[in-house]
């Protein structure tokens, strides 16, 4: 990924008049195909007619479009829910356009209020720096590094200063800001809204001015902020960007948005075995949305798979293809095959190869103490409950005695289908 350090400036007002007078470009079959790829899986593309003309202009002039995605480094890891927009960026890169991966090191200090019912605690510079350091390596697992420009919004946000911030704030009204759904709900319920939270959409919108963005991507919860970018570009005399929103990916539970805090996520740096097994755990219905948003297979190929399943093919076959594709993307083909074998081994009651090992002194030890020490249960009461439910095995044999004591030696203990440990007692 390339990293630019040049701080851009707003365009002169004349640009807006030039944009209005710009000729209409022919919409070829290639442009229509680019639009179809843009629309795949997306929630909204606004305004679609403007984006079609931008694509047509790009083809006619050979000038790539500038496509922006901003991510605040509020956590060190990216999960596959974040890759929904990254995948779309990669599709647009493959059409020949320039992608800007924007790290919101400045906006992270404000805190994004999107979807919040309370003020988000701002991060410190140290926290932001530590989190951002891992974003490079993770994002380039999806994006093409050669066609990705890395930027930090502190480049132009910090030089604004107090006077620049006041001038920027003058370009939007409080009444318009209060049209935002989360602000309106909090105001109606008399939940506090801090003044600095109004700065977040303004600063995100100013990013689009600074980067001369043609298209900005985001989740559906970012629509207000993306539209702010269009408004501010017009205020600064630029051709307004189009916006493309992608659906929020439900997590493993199939209900809530994928989130680390809800523990329903797949991290893109997770081990291959865990990643593969988690994909297979989603429902057959949810699988098709994941295909649309996460797979690089063609629309026609996915439709064919769906038809085969409707005609009687086992849906697990399709899910295995999805699990392998995702695991290959973030690991390798060999790792995906090994993960599939590991999953099949577990399904047959076998013991995986890569289980944790630990040594415990004081044999004989009660089964509850062993399970807790191995990290397979959180407490003795959970251990007892799992034994009662038939969910605990020792060397493959289900145990029913909550008072069982394990003698000196090495045993494999198992809780449920996925939790294993090899324990040596002395």
Automatic annotation (TrEMBL):
A motif ('KMSKS' region) lies at residues 257-261. ATP binds at residue 260. Keywords: Aminoacyl-tRNA synthetase, ATP-binding, Cytoplasm, Ligase, Nucleotide-binding, Protein biosynthesis, RNA-binding. Its EC number is 6.1.1.1. GO terms for biological process: tyrosyl-tRNA aminoacylation. One of its GO terms (molecular function) is RNA binding. Its main location: cytoplasm. One of its GO terms (cellular component) is cytosol. A motif ('HIGH' region) lies at residues 73-82. It comes from the Bacteria. Residues 1-16 have a biased composition (Low complexity). It catalyses: tRNA(Tyr) + L-tyrosine + ATP = L-tyrosyl-tRNA(Tyr) + AMP + diphosphate + H(+). Homodimer. Catalyzes the attachment of tyrosine to tRNA(Tyr) in a two-step reaction: tyrosine is first activated by ATP to form Tyr-AMP and then transferred to the acceptor end of tRNA(Tyr). HAMAP family: Tyr_tRNA_synth_type2. This is Tyrosine--tRNA ligase. It comes from Paucibacter sediminis.
